Amino acid sequence: MTIHRRVLVLGGARSGKSRTALRLAESTSPERTYIATAQAFDDEMRERIDRHRAERDGSWQTVDAPLDLVEAVQAQVAPRHAVLVDCLTLWLSNLMLEGRDPGREAGRLVQAVQDARGPLILVTNEVGQGIVPPTPLGRAFRDEQGRLNQRVAEACDAVVLVAAGCPILVKPSPPLRLHLE
Questions:
Q1: How many domains does the chain have?
Q2: Which of 27, 52, 114, 115 has the highest CB neighbour count under 10 A?
């Protein structure tokens, strides 16, 4: 059996990616930290955050890191201690709205992922399969999210795509070979 230390879980909105990541972390270690990147700017977002909290039992430690995710990951990741980051999409949105350089911050995160010496699970949205956003900011966000997902996926040992609540292992995958005649 292959053990993966760093796992990226991605999927569309309401695909079940957070629940999948939560179950994976709970099956990994009784010592767990949930790093939350959401910010409650309105009632609807507060309700979403409350629903996510309700899914976790009292064994979870929660760290809020809407902007300083890299530092939170570095501080929390340890052997035999599962860390779940939910989610990279909100973190990237927070960075862009604060005027931070997403490419630089992504590089710092990738290094933290590569340096992780304990189980680390990261949740992100797959945003590139929908419609083209009508605004320049929306298109810039979609492009940055795609680049971030690629970079983090490369740094992870495993990538799981969740569709309709069903986890699908994307990485590692068997080599693709074409038959040439």
A1: 1
A2: 52
